Structures are given as C-alpha cells and as structure tokens.
Amino acid sequence: MGICLIVNISGPDTFPALYNSAARLANDLTITPGKKHTEGYYLKGENVVFTYTHPKNLNSKLINSASVAGSFNDWKTDNKNYQLTKKEDNRFELEIPKSRFEKGKTYSFKLVLNGEDWINASGNASNTDGTDDNNLTLKL
C-alpha cells in the first residue's frame, strides 16, 4: 500500500494533522471488520500498562518521546509521571499501579508523541469515548 500527499503549506500544526490523517487512512484501509480490541493499555497484575507501538513501516527514529495524557492527569503532556519508556525501537510502555485509578470510573486519554502529536484511536479500538476527539478510555 502506498499513500502520496503533496502539501503546499507548512506550520506548527502541519505534521500532526498530516500524521493523524495518514495514519487514520492507512488504518481504515487495513482494518479487519469485527476485530475490535482494547487500545492504548493492558492490565498486568496490579498495574495498568499504557503502551504505544509505532508502525514498523514508519521511521521510529522520528519518535523522541511518548507520553499519556488524560482526565487522570489534567491532560498534561509534560507530566514526568506519565512518560512512557522505550522498550524496543518501535514500542513504548509505562506501568502505573491500578490503585491510582478509581474503580468503576471511566477515564479518557490519548497517547502523545514528541510532546505535541496527539494520536487518535484506530478504527479497531473498542475503548473509545465516542466524541469528536476520539479519545481512548480506561475503566477498571
């Protein structure tokens, strides 16, 4: 699959807008109908593990940092307690004790690359909030 975009403008919002649009288009073209999954985190023992995997066909060297911002940290991208650690070239993770989250409460969140590129949920995500912002959700 190939996607070609020609852009005649450049500004601070150009890269995030193009990245999200291209990623959403690529995801929509490769989506498997009916194959929904929880996205952005998984549970491991007494921890919530936030996770981001950069597509292997994209240059992971462009990702200097990954963080999680959401209703649980006032949507702060620079909060040091919510910075993911690089585990492999294209995979980042952060373990947080479940005890930091109120049981039964729904939290909205997004993964953020390089402190400013907010990643939208894919079409396969089963844990979205249904808003125009297309946030992921966490509920214990």
Automatic annotation (TrEMBL):
InterPro entries referenced in this protein's UniProt entry, alphabetically: Ig-like_fold, Ig_E-set
Record organism: Chryseobacterium carnipullorum
Gene3D superfamilies: Immunoglobulins
Name of the protein in its database record: AMP-activated protein kinase glycogen-binding domain-containing protein
Domain of life the protein comes from: Bacteria
